[in-house]
Amino acid sequence: MTRAAILQMTSGIDPLANARTLVDGIASAAGEGAAMLFTPEMSGLLDRDRARGAASIVAQDDDPVLAAVRDAAARHGIWVQLGSLALREDHGRFVNRGFVVDSSGGIRASYDKLHLFDVDLPTGERWRESDAYAPGDRAVVVDTPLGPLGLSICYDIRFPDLYRALTDAGATLLAVPAAFTRPTGAAHWHTLLRARAIEAGVHVIASAQTGTHADGRTTYGHSLAIDPWGEILLDMGEPAGLGFVEIDPARVADVRSRVPAIAHRRPIPPVTRA
Question: What global pTM score does this model have?
Answer without folding.
Answer: 0.96
